[in-house]
Amino acid sequence: MRMSSREIAVIGMMLGLSLMLEVIPVEMPTVWGMKIDLVAVPIIMAYLITGFAGGLIAVFLLFVGLGLISSASWLGGMMKATATFSVLVGLEVSRRLTHFDFENAEGRRTVAFAVLAFLIGIAVRVPLMVALNYYVALEIWLGVPQEKVVEVVETWTGVPFWIAIGLPNVIQSAIDVFVGLAATIPVLRRVPHLLK
Known about the structure:
Elements: H1 5-23, E1 27-29, E2 35-37, H2 41-50, H3 52-69, H4 73-98, H5 107-142, H6 146-157, H7 161-190
Antiparallel strand pairs: 1-2
Helix pairs in contact: 1-2, 1-3, 2-3, 2-7, 3-4, 4-5, 4-7, 5-6, 5-7
């Protein structure tokens, strides 16, 4: 795979913006460490401008970058990158199913693409993040044995474990997909050569 200098520049700018949003946070924290934020939105924008391969590179670099600068260390970086990867999967599958492209985007097609991408993304993200939180992250973050993770989270939140993990991930996916599209579409209308 060969990348153009334009694609490298877009990925670099979007990664820099993501890491800036991590350091200067606009976020809503959850009880167990997840933050609902805008960090993944520039990565989604990188995908929308450069394609799936560019999006994958941006997600990998996000993991590395967050591992270096985030207070949540490599674990938070892994969780954010994995969750963002699931959103990219939803976007890419939706793009292929709807044959969506920005050059011919119009209202209904864009809405259908976005809604399908969101639904596919959460179908991948929620089970993945429930499993990763149960088997990996929360045991480390909370410092409790794995068999106590569900009990601790349910006691803190007052809701079943899968809802406590799943609902914030659904909200974050909505932000990633819809804000990412809302931020990218006007840019591509004004600077359409970014897609070439």
